[in-house]
Amino acid sequence: MKKYIRITGKYLLIPVCAEEKNRTVNFSVQKEKVFEFQIPVSEEKEGFYSFHYYAPLNVEKYAGSRMLVEGDVPAGFLDALCLSDSIPQVCQSHPLIHFTADTGWINDPNGLIFQNGVYHLFYQNNPFDTRWENMCWGHAVSHDLLHWERKETALYPDADGTVYSGSGIVNEKGLLGLDANAQIYFYTCAGSKSEWSRGKTFTQRIAVSTDGGGTVTRMEGVAVRQLAEGNRDPKVYWHEESNAYYMVLYLRENDFAILRSKDLKNWKRSQTITLEKAWECPDLRRIPVEGGGEKWVFYSADGYYFTGEFDGYEFHPDSPRRKAWKTTIPYAAQTIWGTQDVILIPWLRMKNPGKLYTGAMGLPRKLSLVKTEEGYRLRQVPVESFEQTKSAVHSSDGEGKVFCMSQRDGALEICIHMEKPADFSIDLYGTPVTYVSSCGKLGTGAEVCEIGKGLNDFSILADGEILEVSAQNGLILAVMELPSDRKRGNVTVEVAGKAAVDIYRID
């Protein structure tokens, strides 16, 4: 089936029937294909076509042209296509201080940049379903890392491939013939991950923005040709001592490459390194050590991290593998370019049942290293704006049961500081959250994780379906998914021993 549409609006609204069978839909202008997506399409029933939401596709550049839309789709799908100058919003509940898409699927954070007081979050996005597919770069901005404004899709797939993960910097060295304020993004162009790009390879490419992230344009050519099948996720920073940029790149299995460049165009591999169990989405940063000094940390998608030394050419680990999280929901975290503190944002692999979006971003946390008898351990504490946004709801010091009521929607933090390690139980809007000190198990609803024995200091952050639990002032972190999406109601805290309990709302 096919349909011609005269482009008279900014957006072509595409009907999405989430998680139905995908159909390939092609979009052409003057006989040239300009888009191809896998779109879940339902069957017509008694002449009626139903769908869940509209996904906007920016077609402004084709204004006045006739666009051909064609695919193995029912007539009802084509009839539901329409034009608009605005993006329709879906009325549904979202977390209040964790980023989510309005609709569709999200995964890895990409291109994290802080410039002129604005944080830019790009991310893996499928606008056309609540499942992974059609990898694009979505975009959002924030002034405090807690409250985000969703922007238009920054990059769509093209004939060379879909848009996999990458990173971003500001062009401080004035390279690539661009102004020093230009934003430069490195991303994996995933060839053969779409029918349109069949036969192409995975290459690392460059996109730029000269208007503060408002529009993102691909540069011609390839920055790094394929080094291994499926190589991906370039992370780029400047190394002052060796006077060059370095890129860490995932290759295959547990192998990574480090490459160097003086001009951001020509890259030379300086090391291939194998790290135990580490897999994709690498990051390599200097992290401050509490008490003085700093260490290099190599970080991978599962939260595995290694401390070591890096001279701009090679990374040499000097510690065993450690893990940043006690649970598997956080994944593919990335640090932000341009901040004084080293700030990390993970993707949260949420299921979000009953929602027209899937996935969320974790609370941004500031990183430091603590030297312990077992070696250096990563501490992750909320960014300063989180502390500044808190308002006290309850405070008590002693023994017994604590009760409070949240009467309006908000994220809630419960801080428990015990005199000695002890068990606690929380009734959080009807969901039990428990800790058993002797076995180190944390439970919420039917889910249980091993968080550690003998802990006495906890922060429990609830934001809709998201529960982030940190202990020992950020040395331990677990993220879990609550069985219900509630943001107000009764809260009861009971600790088996003396404890200070403080409860805060974060709006």
In terms of per-residue confidence, which ranges show pLDDT below 50 for 5 or more consecutive residues? none
**Portion of residues within helices:** under 10%
Q: What is the structural class?
A: mainly beta
Q: Rough shape?
A: globular
Number of discrete helical segments: 2
Task: Please state roughly what percent of the residues sit in beta strands, choosing from under 5%, 5-15%, 15-25%, 25-35%, 35-45% or over 45%.
Answer: over 45%
Summarize the main sheet: 9 strands, antiparallel
- Strands, count: 39
| Rg for CA atoms | 24 Å
The end-to-end span amounts to 48 Å
What is the averaged pLDDT score? 97
Précis, in short:
This protein is 2% helix and 54% strand. It has 507 residues and is mainly β. Strands 31, 32, 33, 34, 35, 36, 37, 38 and 39 form a nine-stranded antiparallel β-sheet that branches. Strands 11-10-9-8-27 form a five-stranded mixed β-sheet, with no helix packed on it. Strands 20, 21, 22, 23 and 24 form a five-stranded antiparallel β-sheet that branches.
Protein topology:
Elements: E1 2-6, E2 11-16, E3 22-29, E4 32-40, E5 53-58, E6 66-71, H1 75-80, E7 82-84, E8 104-115, E9 118-126, E10 136-142, E11 148-150, E12 162-170, E13 183-190, E14 202-209, E15 217-218, E16 232-239, E17 244-252, E18 255-261, E19 268-274, E20 283-288, E21 294-299, E22 304-310, E23 315-317, E24 322-323, E25 330-335, E26 343-348, E27 357-358, E28 360-361, E29 365-372, E30 375-382, H2 384-389, E31 390-406, E32 411-418, E33 424-428, E34 431-436, E35 441-444, E36 447-450, E37 457-471, E38 476-486, E39 489-506
Parallel strand pairs: 8-27
Antiparallel strand pairs: 1-6, 2-5, 2-7, 3-4, 3-6, 8-9, 9-10, 10-11, 12-13, 13-14, 14-15, 16-17, 17-18, 18-19, 20-21, 21-22, 22-23, 22-24, 25-26, 26-28, 26-29, 29-30, 31-39, 32-37, 32-39, 33-34, 33-39, 34-35, 35-36, 37-38
